[in-house]
């Protein structure tokens, strides 16, 4: 107990009295090892070194044992590096168990120990999610535009995999959202929400056809596109506000979740922890979350859709295999009012396909690959297709095709 009293009475970076002038050599080895292991990190490694320096046998032994140095380094790192945190936390269903141990001794009996029972529990499943619009601004469209796209991000903030049902809807009247999503002048039509299936951040009509997210890992995010049509009667600078609501479900099966009510049970309970969203009826702790986006008629709106419309492989079938020839199609649609000036379409090809020379067709008219009098060219150095459409007044529609071979 002498050591404990000295430990309690020292101040600052001074060494305890029992430590001063002692070292890990000769008869004081055990004392100094115990003190250094318990105090090196508190008094600093320099303090331990001073005790070694004062020892007459300094030159005959190490200045500081490796274990003490290692303890000091580890504790220092724990103090200097902030602990990282994750939204997901401990995975749902994790079994956590521990027990306590009592040790004691008396003047008449040898030291003994007693161990408690094991206290165990299962970590419950936290149901939480977040939906946000990704740009913070309205999507510019034109009157009569089809397949106008707004983009959202759905994040699983829970501690287990989740599925999510997706619902796109028109905002009611002028919503109480933050500008620019607070003014509602017209109603977009045909709203559908599609998950970004290939995770490229771009709406691909032939690929992004799923209307739900079947499985999303804890802490993972996925983009979702709300696609709609713009009426032809919309005036310039009018806006339509839409919402996306994501509802948590069981992964894969997409069955509805039911919160566990009342006291905690021995099983894995479902705990709803989501905040209230912006859509009508989206309250806190309902396994849903929602956000607003908007379409703004800027006068002229241009939509660009690219797809593979034909495949011919060496066997005469339509298999996407090496040496197969694909026909790409790009459809550019201009809607609204006013004039779109200097329209240029560029399409850089990926490294694993090769352009088929002389295959560019614009509105059923064959074009050359060279930079000449026509409005198309293929730049070999950058493997890029370039189509110049000039100044165009809506409504207008352009269809571009070309062919490429899979390497």
Please state the overall shape, judged from the principal axes of the Cα atoms: elongated
CATH superfamily of the largest domain: Immunoglobulins
What is the CATH topology of the largest domain? Immunoglobulin-like
Largest sheet entry:
6 strands, antiparallel
Estimate percent helicity.
10-25%
End-to-end distance, in Å? 79 Å
User: What is the average of the pLDDT values?
Assistant: 83
Q: How many domains make up the coordinates?
A: 4
Poorly predicted sequence stretches spanning 5 or more consecutive residues: 1-63, 77-86
Indicate the CATH class of the largest domain. Answer: Mainly Beta
What fraction strand?
35-45%
The total beta strand count reads 24
Q: What value does the Rg take, in angstroms?
A: 34 Å
Helices and strands: which structural class?
mainly beta
